[in-house]
Design goal:
GO terms for molecular function: hydrolase activity, acting on carbon-nitrogen (but not peptide) bonds, in cyclic amidines. This is Amidohydrolase family protein. InterPro entries: Amidohydro_3 (IPR013108), Metal-dep_hydrolase_composite (IPR011059), Metal_Hydrolase (IPR032466), Metallo-hydrolase_Enzymes (IPR052349). Keywords: Hydrolase. There is one protein chain. The chain is of the alpha/beta class. The protein folds into 2 domains: 112 residues, Urease, subunit C, domain 1; 251 residues, TIM Barrel (Alpha-Beta Barrel), CATH 3.20.20. Helices cover 32% and strands 25% of the residues. It has an 8-stranded parallel sheet with strand order 6-7-8-9-10-11-12-13. A 4-stranded mixed sheet has the order 3-2-1-4, with no helix packed on it. It has a 4-stranded antiparallel sheet with strand order 5-14-15-16, with helices on one face. A hairpin with a 2-residue loop joins strand 2 and strand 3.
Length: 409
């Protein structure tokens, strides 16, 4: 990054600690501060009550709450109806029907793929996200064309958002003979190896997972696999993935997206699986589904699995319900699991920030600190708990010291 001129961001509201009545947290103590921003990091933090004479440009934060910027952990940028004519989802009886529909639809969507991906990036950034993990179709119908469109869209946001790209074999890694294509995608910019339901779609759990692992090891990449399978198929898939993760030395580099097996698993069995995953630093990316599928996300967090909230489909042929708003997603998470008290609401923020919260559960200040990246959101709220509960308005978004969305005018 090129050298930035230093400046002060003044009068921003920071969380200082929790207010307690006995053992219960009943509120959040905040105070105003000035931040000196230099070369993409927070170079100094000064209490607003103190006097300082350093002559640098100043941007008035107007008393707005400063929160760490958000992460979009799983979204499909490359195939979308967003910023195009409205279309609802067509009825489908199976994932295979949807794949057949997609084979016809994808070539029609391709000409607008870059433009629509850029529109999604603008949307999610306006909501406060400064990091995105994009799942990108890699299959014979599209070849590497959707990867190219995704890369071009992300390149147009260089210096505004950080990104990862999952090479996603939507039509089946083995079923669609996409192994060679996947290897090419990994050589041409994808950062993670994807996968899809090794039992239902690829019909061979071991071979599908072994192929994913081999690609990841060869390209020194992580893994992010879609897993919708429940029951014994989902269980055996997770058991084998856990075993291979440890065997290949991929600790901390494997994410299971959706992981719906946990929703129907017996409690003790689910906790045992989750503990094993946590010991290997595995993550679960979840859209916080509502309805028939109720994920035990609090249990996963409690045993140490890194739970990351995500949009998945913004609006496309799979689902029309995505908003791209990670703070709304955190609010849904809190609402669904009964996190209505100050402490639980405040700590819910961790699921959309890569684990970063202004305060830890004990009320100790963790963020921001000097030398932290100057990537944050200014929010119209009194504290993180209010921001999560009320999905408070995002006024301005910074990425590495630069204002990238919104305004303080």
């Amino acid at each position: 990054m090129e050298q930035q001129q230093a400046y002060w961001l003044t009068n921003v509201r920071l969380e200082r600690g929790y207010i307690r009545e006995g053992a219960e947290v009943t509120g959040t103590q905040t105070g105003l501060a000035h931040l000196r921003i230099e070369n993409g990091v927070i170079a100094a933090i000064v209490d607003a009550k103190e006097q300082w004479t350093e002559e640098l440009p100043r941007v008035d934060g107007k008393g707005l709450l400063l929160l760490p910027s958000f992460e979009e952990a799983h979204i499909h940028l490359d195939k979308t109806y967003y910023d195009g004519p409205w279309r609802a989802v067509r009825r489908s009886s199976s994932i295979f029907d949807r794949i057949e529909e997609e084979k016809v639809l994808l070539p029609k969507l391709l000409p607008d793929a870059k433009r629509q991906a850029e529109s999604i990036l603008a949307l999610i950034q306006g909501y406060g996200s400064t990091h995105v993990r994009a799942h990108c179709n890699i299959e014979p119908v599209s070849g590497l064309k959707r990867l190219e469109a995704t890369k071009l869209a992300l390149e147009s946001y260089t210096g505004k958002i950080s990104s990862e790209i999952v090479a996603f074999p939507q039509h089946g890694l083995l079923r669609s003979n996409s192994v060679e294509l996947m290897g090419q995608a990994m050589s041409e910019g994808a950062t993670h190896v994807g996968g899809l339901d090794p039992y239902t779609v690829d019909e061979n759990i071991e071979k599908s997972l072994h192929t994913m692992i081999e690609l990841a090891v060869k390209h020194q990449a992580g893994i992010d696999m879609h897993l919708h399978d429940g029951g014994e198929a989902g269980k055996q898939t997770l058991l084998e993935l856990v075993r291979l993760t440890e065997e290949a030395g991929l600790q901390g580099q494997v994410t299971v997206s959706h992981a719906f097996w946990f929703a129907g698993a017996e409690k003790q069995e689910a906790e045992k699986m989750a503990s094993r995953m946590a010991s290997l630093g595995m993550s679960v990316a979840s859209t916080v589904p509502i309805g028939r599928t109720m994920m035990p996300l609090p249990m996963l967090q409690r045993v140490g699995v890194n739970v990351k909230l995500a949009t998945d489909s913004l609006t496309d042929h799979w689902s029309p319900f995505g908003s791209g708003d990670m703070l709304e997603k955190a609010g849904r998470f809190a609402e669904l699991y009964g996190y209505s008290d100050e402490l639980s609401l405040s700590q819910s923020l961790a699921a959309i920030t890569g684990g970063v919260t202004p305060l830890n559960a004990a009320g100790e200040n963790l963020w921001p600190k000097v030398n932290h990246a100057a990537s944050f959101v200014l929010v119209q709220a009194s504290c993180a708990a209010e921001a999560v509960a009320r999905r408070s308005e995002r006024m301005a978004v910074w990425y590495q010291g630069q204002l990238v969305s919104g305004s303080l005018a």
